[in-house]
Amino acid sequence: MLKVILLSVVFKNRKPVLKFYEPKSKKLILYEDNTDYKCHFYVTDEQSLSMKEMVGVDSVRSIEIFDVVRDELRAVSKVTVNNPMIKYDLKEAGIGWETDIKFYQDYIYDNNYIVGTWYDIDENLDITPIKSTESSFNLSNIDMDSVVDTDKFSSQVTKWANLLGQNIPSVRRMAFDIEVESSRDSLPDSSTALNRVTAISFHGSDGLAKVFTLRRPEITLGDEDENKNYDLVWYDSEKKMLEDSFELIDSYPLILTYNGDMFDMPYLYNRANILGIDYNPFKMMAKKATLNNGIHIDLYGVFSNPSLKTYAFNAKYVEDKLGTVSQALLGETKTEYEGELNDIPLFLLSKYCYNDSRLTFELSHFNNDLVMNMLIILCRIGNMPIDDISRLKISNWIRSMFYFEHRINNQLIPKSSDFPKVESSTTAAIKGKKYQGAVVIEPTAGIHFDVTVLDFASLYPSIMKTRNISYETICCPHEECKTNKIPNTNHWSCRKKIGIASLLIGSLKELRVNHFKALSKDKTKTQQERDINDLIAQALKVYLNASYGVMGADTFDLYFLPSAESITAVGRDIILKIIEIAKENGVVVLYGDTDSVFTYKPTKEQIDLLIEYCSKNYSIDLEVDKEYKYLVLSDRKKNYFGIKKDNSLDIKGLTGKKSNTPIYLRELFYDIIETLKKIEIPSDFVEAKNVISNKIKNIYENFDTIPLEKLVFRVMIKQEPSEYKKNKPQNIKAAEQLPEKPYKGQFVSFVKTWNEPHVKPLVLAKRSDIDKEKYFENFESTLEQIVDPMDIDIQFLMGKGKQTTLFQW
């Protein structure tokens, strides 16, 4: 009997193949299902008439299935197919239900497999899930007030707890990276692979450290690194180098790359075909490539994922490049060299290549395998293959979680046309939005000492739980529910059944706040146990913080405007009521935004009163989030900075801290912040104001001496350049002046110029090109956000106005 963990499921030769990892042998076990599994979808009985004779259709039969939107059984036709492509064609035509589910997802759902969990495989290759100990979970800390169906909710909480509490193995894995010949005028093209591969490096969890390097007589060897910690193997034949590399890659269960999906793997696949290599471990999928046998994780997909970047990695980096991410998370970066990479000595090329694969591996390994462990936890929640989790956006994870719940309960998964046609009840304040979002209270501009910020813990997920908000429970068909109104809307919430979103998101929220976070701080646990519980809480945070964003996006497959609108409406109602209660009890409220209330010098009794009121009336936790020594508010919403009582800096929305702000201005911005950090009492502001004013005046008066490279704006191209047909942004205009063709994901460094098109790439710019007026406009708009509350007149310092009176501290 083998104990294995399911990591991936793929569709190969029209058969589902499960990829299990076996920790003792440290190998993958590939299980090809030969039960003649066929996927299915549903159509109306009328639509089914034209499908019975369709090639690839196995069977069509009339059934009844539960319709969650109508809350009743519904007569439909179940169509089973031999060829899943039929589903995808119908999806494009907008026909049927569940045609958007991929074959391997169908297989996972229908067989009740859960990716990331443990199974036993016996000698007959029978697979059985390892039973969890559900009775061991204590529900006493779980808040089930306001839950419509407490039995179902408690069962789901227990299910999640035991699923997420399963141990996580350390998976044997290897990272690799390639270097390819290139010309100065163009980058290597992975689709044609016409250039030679010059080096391939490998770094494994088992201590493997190797570089295969191609000898090129026209390139010097250079000096060997005496401290190198990798084996260097020389090759005279590129074909032999690739053959040996393929054998090594195929020997590991899991392969890591950084942008390997789009470059390294398709390049090697196509290059192998050109060289006539018999065995190729890769398989092409449109423009990307994957492995035939192993599992491939492209860490670029992980670290460029907006939800993971923000909520798992705490926005520690802006650019998604290997060097930038490694610097932020590992404190290391890529090997430096001078000149063109194509021309550097072979020993240096080998070192450069190896360092890239080592950094790629270390990004999966730092903090006790944090990233690998998190990916497995995310798999368990979304029930998706680990390779999909690493590549796809979080909306796909949440959709899979919802779809699986419907499928195991034999429910028809709804599509947008199934939802009732309901108009918005509110008017959006932001152009392009379909309904009113969160409330933002006007800030009280100025410098405020002793400020406490109260935060609603997981506000939107809590609202989904307590108000039973889901796509099938808002504006439900029951007459008796219409009195259960959502405040400030024409909508109502169901009282008869718990919604899928309310059940799944609400139970995850409860587990995060009242179980895993508590375990992460439990001193009776070992440090390792506390760390893994903290990691689970972190992974849950990723799902929870994205849950409303997904539900509120009209591109989401289960989007229903009234459910999204109801969440924000309840949120506005709660925060406005808490502010009202605060003011009634003598609390000065300086600012409020979405789920946070900024209070001035509140007493402990006042804070406790607000926390108790929120818990009693809304079943939502209100907690102290931040305590500022002082807070500086401008009259702009979502723009402030403060020094916390632990002397750490907190900045929100100020452009001076953004990555595309020129270096000279960023340096001044943080120089000002450092001056402000020294302030302890209100009277200190007088001296600080004089110091800051002099710093600003000095930069303005000496602008012409600032080095050109410090005036650069560095902005990423976020879309394919061909998509910018009209109103091209400045980074595109600058990139088009370079010899290389612009590409998505490219960071463009440019300066603002007085002549058309008013921007130039740094490499082409001269000092005489600089448009000083444009820089002064940017200088003024950036700094006024931070100095306005201090009553510093930038225009006066720039010789444009008259200084105002001093702020009355």
What form results from the Cα inertia axes?
globular
Strand percentage: 15-25%
The overall strand count is 27
- Our Rg estimate from Cα atoms comes to 29 Å
Task: Report the total helices.
Answer: 22
Oligomeric description of these chains? single chain
The total tally of domains equals 4
Low-confidence stretches: 802-809
CATH H level of the largest domain: which superfamily?
Answer: B family DNA polymerase, palm domain
**CATH level 1 name of the largest domain:** Alpha Beta
CATH architecture call of the largest domain: Alpha-Beta Complex
* Class computed from helices, strands and strand pairing: alpha+beta
Mean pLDDT: 90
Task: Report on the biggest sheet.
Answer: 7 strands, antiparallel
Spatial arrangement of strands, main beta sheet:
18-20-21-19-22-23-24
In helices, the fraction of residues equals 25-40%
The CATH topology of the largest domain, please? Palm domain of DNA polymerase
- The CA-CA distance between the termini, in Å, is 75 Å
